[in-house]
Amino acid sequence: MTNAEQLLWRHLRAHRLCGEKFRRQHPIGPYIVDFMHFGARLIIEADGGQHNGSATDAVRDTWLRTRGFKVLRFWNDEILSNVDVVLEVILGDIAERFPSPPAPLPPGRGEIADFYRYGFL
């Protein structure tokens, strides 16, 4: 792994993104992706200069998108110099895919006592 991949993996592995679980160097079909989150169907790629405008990456991204995955690509220098911003982008994408649960009922509502009170038990 590159220095950028190691840095990003340290953050992802430590579950610093709301406890979300990522895998690294995971095979999907004919490809091995840098990082992935199965539940969010999110793939994260850390790229060096060799990926600039790569036709191979475009084909790969298209193949992954047709299977329901979203691909986020970050440059190595972007990860090394702004890892907090990169993590915010990743977390924002996960939050879009997993909206927060509804607010809990106010105290005294929906409790077992209500079932007794209204004669359901």
TrEMBL record:
CDD domains, sorted? Endonuclease_DUF559 (cd01038)
Which SUPFAM superfamilies did the record assign?
A: Restriction endonuclease-like
Ranges for domain DUF559 come to 1-92
What InterPro entries does its record include? DUF559, Endonuclease_DUF559_bact, Restrct_endonuc-II-like
Top-rank taxon of the source lineage equals: Bacteria
Q: What is this protein called?
A: DUF559 domain-containing protein
Species of provenance: Paraburkholderia sacchari
